[in-house]
Specification:
single chain, 411 residues, alpha/beta, Rossmann fold, 2 domains, globular
C-alpha cells in the first residue's frame, strides 16, 4: 500500500469519527431550537444605510457553534459589509472560530480563511447556515464533509474564518463577488474584538474544488482590494480553472449534474444572455430546477444526463453564448502576490487537470511563487484528502515566516 493511500485512509478515518478534542465534555447538541435558514433569520437582514459603511465593517454578531456541539472553541457569526462584482454594497456573514488554548507563539495568532465549497444556488447552501445547523441542514452540500476539517486547523491553534463568499444571492462561480466577500470577511474577523485577533495577524487561505475557485479569485484580487491584509501564503486544489472544459468532460457521466449546476450559475450571473434558451427542453428544465438547489442535490438528480443545446448538439461548450458567459469568470487575469501551493489529480473524475496546468503556467510566467503537485490519486474527493498533510504543513511554514524558495516548483 503506497504512502499516499495510507495517508488518505488515516485522514478519512479521522474525519469519519465524531470530533473529539481535548476538553470536549460531550457530543450532545447544544442548539435546541431549529436553525433558521438565512432568508428567515433576521440576523442576515441588511441595514437600511448599508452603503454608508466601509468594506469589512461589522454590522452585527452573535455567538454560534459548529454543528451545535460543545467543543473547546469559541465560535461567532459576524455580519459585515462588502461589495458585489459590480462594486454595489452588499452583506456577508462569516463564521469565526478561535481555539480556547491561548496563543503562545510569536506575534499574534495566525488566521486561516477557509473557503469551503459553498457550491450553492439556494440560500440554504450558505456555509454559515450549514455549519451552525449541522444535520438540520441536510446532506446536500460540500460543507457537510468539509466542516470537520476545521478541527485540523484548530488543532494547530490557528483561528479559522469561513465566509459566505457567494453573498446573499448565492452567486456561485462569480469570481469578483467571491473575492470581495472573502476579503471583507477576513477584515471583519480581524476587527472583531472578542476573537482577540489583530489587523497585523498573519493570514493564509485555502479551498478545494468550488472553494479553490473562490480562494484563487480572492488571492488574485487581494493586492488591489485589500492590500493591508498580512497574507503569507495560500493553497488551492482541484481548481475549476475552465468551466467549458469541465462541461465537456462531465456531460453524460455520473458527474453530469456538475454541468447542470454550472449552467444554472451562469444563467444567474448573466440574465441578459438568456442561457436557458440555448438548450433543448429536458436540459432547460434540469438547469431551471438546479437554480434553487445545492450542488449535491443536482448531481444526484442528473447522473448520466446528456445536456444538449437547442439544436440537439451535445457539445455545449462550443455554444458562443455559453462560452462568453464562462469566459467572464475565468481565472488567471491577475497574479497572486504571495506563495501558492496547488494540486490537481491527473485522474480527477470531475474537473480536468490541463486547465489547472495552464493556469499555473500563466502564474509562473508572470513571476509568481508556486509549488504544484500533479498527484495521481484517483478521484476528485480522494485527491483532496490525500493532500491535506502536505498542504497544511506548507501553510504552517508560511504562517510561521519560514522562507520559501521563490519561483515555480513541481512535486
Amino acid at each position: 500500500m503506497n504512502r499516499s493511500l495510507i495517508r488518505c485512509l488515516l485522514i478519512t478515518a479521522a474525519l469519519a469519527t465524531p470530533i473529539s478534542l481535548p476538553g470536549a465534555v460531550s457530543a450532545e447538541p447544544v442548539v435546541a431550537q431549529p436553525v433558521l435558514t438565512p432568508d428567515k433569520d433576521p440576523f442576515y437582514a441588511a441595514p437600511p444605510d448599508l452603503g454608508g459603511y466601509a468594506n469589512g465593517a461589522i454590522l452585527g454578531s452573535r455567538p454560534s457553534a459548529v454543528y451545535g456541539l460543545p467543543l473547546p472553541i469559541k465560535v461567532w457569526q459576524v455580519q459585515y459589509k462588502s461589495t458585489d462584482a459590480a462594486n454595489r454594497p452588499t452583506t456577508g456573514v462569516t463564521t469565526v472560530i478561535v481555539p480556547d488554548t491561548p496563543w503562545t507563539g510569536p506575534g499574534t495568532r495566525p488566521v486561516v480563511s477557509y473557503q469551503m465549497a459553498e457550491d450553492g444556488l439556494g440560500i440554504q447552501c450558505a456555509s454559515s447556515f450549514v455549519m451552525r445547523a449541522g444535520v438540520q441542514a441536510g446532506l446536500q452540500n460540500g460543507q457537510d464533509q468539509e466542516t470537520p476539517l476545521t478541527a485540523l486547523l484548530v488543532q494547530r491553534n490557528w483561528a479559522v474564518v469561513v465566509s459566505d463568499y457567494e453573498g446573499p444571492q448565492e452567486r456561485f462561480y462569480d469570481r469578483d463577488q467571491a473575492a470581495h466577500s472573502a476579503l471583507d470577511g477576513i477584515r471583519a474577523a480581524l476587527a472583531f474584538g472578542p476573537a482577540g485577533l489583530s489587523p497585523s495577524s498573519p493570514v493564509a487561505a485555502f479551498g478545494y474544488s468550488g472553494g479553490a475557485f473562490a480562494t484563487v479569485a480572492t488571492m488574485q484580487r487581494q493586492p488591489r482590494y485589500a492590500p493591508e491584509l498580512n497574507f503569507t501564503g495560500f493553497a488551492a486544489g482541484g481548481i475549476p480553472a475552465d468551466m467549458l472544459a469541465a462541461f465537456t468532460m462531465d456531460n453524460g457521466t455520473d458527474n453530469s449534474g456538475l454541468g447542470v449546476f454550472g449552467l444554472a450559475a451562469l444563467n444567474r450571473l448573466n440574465p441578459e444572455a438568456d442561457i436557458l434558451a440555448q438548450f433543448d427542453e429536458p436540459s432547460r428544465a434540469a438547469i431551471a430546477t438546479a437554480g434553487t438547489q445545492c450542488v449535491q442535490t443536482v448531481v444526484n438528480a442528473n447522473k448520466g444526463r446528456l445536456l444538449r443545446d437547442a439544436s440537439g448538439n451535445p457539445d455545449i461548450a462550443s455554444n458562443p453564448v455559453i462560452a462568453a458567459a464562462a469566459d467572464k469568470q475565468k481565472l488567471g487575469g491577475e497574479v497572486p502576490g504571495v506563495p501558492m501551493y496547488a494540486w490537481h489529480s491527473s485522474r480527477d473524475d470531475a474537473l480536468p487537470q490541463p486547465p489547472t496546468d495552464a493556469l499555473i503556467d500563466r502564474y509562473c510566467a508572470a513571476g509568481a511563487t508556486v509549488t504544484y503537485h500533479r498527484t495521481e490519486v484517483a478521484g476528485h474527493a480522494p485527491a483532496a484528502i490525500a493532500e491535506l498533510p502536505a498542504m497544511f504543513d506548507y501553510l504552517g511554514d508560511r504562517l510561521a515566516g519560514v522562507p520559501v524558495q521563490t519561483g515555480c516548483h513541481n512535486l
